[in-house]
Amino acid sequence: MAQISMAAVPALKDQFGQLKTRMEKAVDDFRKELSATRTGRASVHMLDTVQAEYYGSMMPLNQVATITVPEPQLILVTPFDPSALGAIEKAIRSGDLGMNPMNDGKIIRIPVPPLTEDRRKEMVKHLHKALEEHRTAIRNIRRDGNDFIKKTLKDKKITEDEERGTMEHLQKLTDDEIKKMEEMCKTKEKEVMTV
C-alpha cells in the first residue's frame, strides 16, 4: 500500500499542518536544549535556560542582561539595570549548571571550569534523557494524529485506503523527526565527550 500524504486528503489537510508544526516545535525545543548544554568551551547559550526575577516576574537572562564570551573559559553577564545584579547572580547559582558566578558590583564573571570525565558522562546522560522526552512528545503527537484519522474514518469522511496510507505517512514523518533529533544528539554527545 502506497503512502498517502495527509495534506493530499482534504478532510485531513488542516490537521496535518497542525501535527507537522507541533513536531517541528518539539524538534526545535530539543535543539534549544542542546545548545544550552555545556561543552568544554564557554557559550552564551549555556545560560539560555536561566531565568532571573526582575520586577516581580521571571525573565530569560538574555532579556535583563548582555551576555558575552570574551575568552573560551569565561562568560560575562552585564545587567541592563545594575539593581538586578543580585537576582541575576542568584538565578545563575540556582540554575543547576555547576557554575560559580563572581559579582564585582557591575558585572558577573562566570568562569567555565573544564569538564571532568564524570561530569561529561553526566551531561551525556542528560542529553539522552532529553532526547527520550522529546521522542515521547513526538510519539504523542503521532498518536493524536492517528486518533484524528480514525475518527475521520468513523465519520466516513475518508476511505479505509486513505486511512491506511495517511497513517503510514504520519509514521514516516514521525520517524524522520525522531531521526533528526537522534543525529543532533549524536553530534552534541561527540562535542561533549571531546576533551
Automatic annotation (TrEMBL):
One of its GO terms (molecular function) is ribosomal large subunit binding. Residues 30-193 form the Ribosome recycling factor domain. The gene is frr. One of its GO terms (biological process) is translational termination. The keyword Repressor does not apply. HAMAP family: RRF. It is found in: Cytoplasm. The keyword Transit peptide does not apply. PANTHER family: MITOCHONDRIAL RIBOSOME RECYCLING FACTOR PSEUDO 1, RIBOSOME RECYCLING FACTOR. Its main location: cytoplasm. The lineage of its organism: Bacteria, Pseudomonadati, Acidobacteriota, Terriglobia, Terriglobales. This is Ribosome-recycling factor. Keywords: Cytoplasm, Protein biosynthesis. Belongs to the RRF family. Responsible for the release of ribosomes from messenger RNA at the termination of protein biosynthesis. May increase the efficiency of translation by recycling ribosomes from one round of translation to another. InterPro entries: Ribosome_recyc_fac, Ribosome_recyc_fac_dom, RRF_sf.
